[in-house]
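Predict the 3D structure for this chain.
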Amino acid sequence: MKHLRHLAVRFIKSLSRKLPSNADLAEVAAILMTAELQLWQQLPPMDQRHSIVVMRRFLERRPGAQPSEARAALLHDIGKIEANLGVVGRVFATLIGRHGERFVAYHDHELIGSELLKDIGSDLITRQLVAGSKDSQFAGALQDLRDADNI
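Done. Predicted structure below.
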């Protein structure tokens, strides 16, 4: 039931096309490296706003976070740009599962995002957290990121 509530709230929030505020954009620009910021700017506004909320929640849970960890919180859904699905497409991808190239890309967004970040020179910690690494050295930060993303 909690998972359905989470999805319903995300769906309703995703309907807005509102852009992040200038203050939000300045905060993001202060955290991300130039190439990461350029990639982040390719996200639709709903994902940009979501990533900012997740990053702030992550930093509340992990006040001593490394800059790489904060970048991962902002970039955790970056692989979704490859799927190029709108709100309705994402609903269908969630309901139907891994059928079709774009739905598979949507479900594999963590690994795709990690590869995109590798291609632009992001650091290992950022890439591993975005990928959802099972490596024990990232376990605490990854759990805090997952908790922050559970909006």
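DSSP finds eleven helices and no strands in the chain.
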